[in-house]
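pls read this protein:
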Amino acid sequence: MLVRLPRALLLVSVALAGWAAWDYARCQGPNSRQPSLIVDWPGPNMGELEIGSREITVSLTNPTDQPHRIIGMMKGCGWNCCIKPKSEDPMTVPARGKVAYPLVLESRFAGAFEVDIILYLEDNDTREVTHTLRGVAVTPRDQSHAKGG
């Protein structure tokens, strides 16, 4: 009886190893290997922008046959500026479609600025993508001199 126990344990071990390999291969299918959404970032160098708020957009393209989502983004401040989503709601990127995800960039003072854009995407898995945006905030030009007034 005790002679059969090691053989039985060996058989169970082989069966469990086979099941684990099958499960791993199943989870590593073609859909889970590549992120589906293609992100087209603004910048990275925005050049000179007047101090204040402005809308910028991140374009996302979905080349697959399945819709995917932009879950949201992390609001944050960096060097001399802050960034936030224009809307807090998640956005769906349709199958074979493209969307513009609007952000609000607000610079505070004249001088260089830098901030990270952090998006959370749901495409085959939840993932975080980051991009650094840079530029120079300048004081608004006086329009009265330009008009001769």
